[in-house]
UniProtKB/TrEMBL annotation:
Domain of life of the native organism: Bacteria
Entries under InterPro entries matching the protein: FAD-dep_OxRdtase, FAD/NAD-bd_sf, Gly_oxidase_ThiO
Keyword Oxidoreductase: yes
Protein biosynthesis as UniProt keyword: no
UniProt entry keywords in alphabetical sequence: Oxidoreductase, Thiamine biosynthesis
Span of domain FAD dependent oxidoreductase: 3-348
Record-given protein name: Glycine oxidase ThiO
SUPFAM superfamilies, A to Z: FAD-linked reductases, C-terminal domain, FAD/NAD(P)-binding domain
Source organism per UniProt: Vreelandella alkaliphila
One Pfam assignment: DAO
Recorded metabolic or biological pathway in which this protein acts: Cofactor biosynthesis; thiamine diphosphate biosynthesis
Amino acid sequence: MQDVLIIGGGVIGMMTALQLAEAGCSVTLVERRRCGEEASWAGGGIVSPLYPWRYSEPVSNLSRYAEQEYPQLATRLFEETGIDPEYRQKGLLYLGVNDGDMAFNWARRLGKPLEAVSGSFIYTKEPWLAEGIESGLWMPTLGSIRNPRLCQALRARLMTLPRVTLEEGLTVEGLCVQQGRVTGIETSCGRIAAGQVVLCGGAWSGVLLDRLGIAMPVRPVKGQMMLFRTQPMAEGRQLLERVVLADGRYLIPRGDGRVLIGSTLEEADFDKTPTVDAYESLRQSALAMLPALAGCPIEHHWAGLRPAAPNGVPFIGELPEIKGLFVNAGHYRNGLVLAPASARLLADQLLMRTPLIDPAPYRPAYQYRSGWEQSTA
């Protein structure tokens, strides 16, 4: 089978490497830091777009496949590595939804369980939420995963595979192209030859393509998050046991009782500095939903960079004008959500298998700055 070089060791890059290696490819994965320490670590881990009925069909198609894959993927990684990604399927409570008709139309069309529920139902599920909630929506099948541990498990699994080589701490400085075909990459430690290159560089994907004179619309969007450490409550319950979403902010419980609040949306180029304003905004949002967090210590506050593409639809596929150069980037807020599906779609194309998902909506769109435009979207 062919050799493949993957740029970027986030959840997209690692799942792409895993699928290709298990299909018989020899894979080299290059990451400038340690795998899983950028946006894949910084996210929340909800295995669904936040308001799935508001997304386009291409995002929904990937999401449906990925949601089906996550339970068995988490179980398999735990068995293979001993690292539990903590997949939890405890449902999600939506509060203050103002487009319920759209939500129910979406749910009926896709056969998703979605219920309108009363305040008493909500407080039975989560008794320490703020007072005054009269109604909401309940999606019982929604799951979440502890993304840092998922990344640890993926990395550990890749390190056991003889067909996979991890090159961490290696900065990619450029892509090598000759006569319309990729030939490898230039790194901080020299050139690595490759006949097939997959760019999974997240928010930095556009930077590498820019050095070839290719303008692909993937930009960084900063997101800040916060983590509270809580204590067990009465009868062995945690302060929060399922995901709660209100006014675009969400609370995510972890198995050890920690509660995560996210997130901001900021146009700040590649600046990942946490800010005082975001700290206070996140804290106030968390207390408005779950007042008891006021007595819980804030353990961590951080920022990450989402790779945003137009309309949130990722680019997945080969650049037609550069043979052998593939892209799997631009997932915006849904990188972890869509990872199993986008990795499968990319692997199908590289291996020339019949794709499970129609690849047409994800074909890379870009411009050459040499004066002419090429679009395949």
